[in-house]
Write a structure and sequence with these properties.
Elements (H helix, E strand, L loop, with lengths): L1 H12 L1 H22 L4 H18 L12 H43 L6 H35 L8 H19 L3
Helix pairs in contact: 2-3, 2-6, 4-5, 5-6
């Protein structure tokens, strides 16, 4: 138990750790609000306030979204920012898939050359290759989720802007970040 608490303290001491925790709050509250909206509007309003507060906490340094810029300029800047993010996510996803493919090929070569990975060095190399693949898959999951969120900003549509789509995408991104940033 102490080891888990220690790791949690280390995780939350990092900026990314706090961001992932607050992102989890933001998207859990979005999903909870969607779930109770029709049956309990007063509770849904509280979840909406929690979502907004969490979102503002995460975006405190994005001046275009907290009234610093002219509203017309902020809208354009938000579009450009979301477009640039989405464009970047596509390339990150492609790069991770290329690296995953190269890792699988290297793993096959190692298995063939070391007689099925019998030596301790081969076993350690295989462990590292597989751990790298898991981390890259987590990165792909987070980047796909963030791409969907960026699409919701670029071109609002019923699928990307649906509370469930945004909620699940946000949680996938946050939890993939938790996994990737958790101390070992």
């Amino acid at each position: 138990m102490n080891d888990t608490v220690d790791k949690l303290v280390i995780f939350l001491a990092k900026r990314d750790g706090i961001d992932k925790l607050v992102k989890t709050f933001q998207y859990v509250s979005k999903l909870a609000r969607w779930q109770v909206e029709a049956s309990h509007p007063d509770v849904a309003q509280r979840f909406k306030q929690w979502e907004v507060a969490s979102g503002l906490g995460r975006k405190a340094f994005r001046t275009g979204r907290i009234g610093t810029l002219d509203a017309k300029l902020a809208g354009r800047m938000s579009f450009i920012s979301a477009f640039g993010e989405a464009f970047g996510y596509v390339f990150f996803i492609i790069a991770d898939f290329i690296m995953i493919k190269e890792g699988v090929e290297a793993e096959r070569r190692l298995l063939i050359s070391s007689k099925e990975g019998d030596s301790e060095d081969a076993k350690e190399s295989l462990r590292k290759m597989r751990a790298d693949r898991v981390m890259r898959l987590m990165a792909v999951a987070a980047n796909v989720a963030d791409f969907i969120i960026a699409l919701a900003d670029i071109e609002p549509n019923p699928f990307c802007n649906h509370a469930v789509t945004l909620g699940v995408s946000g949680l996938v991104s946050a939890w993939a970040g938790w996994y990737r940033n958790w101390p070992t």
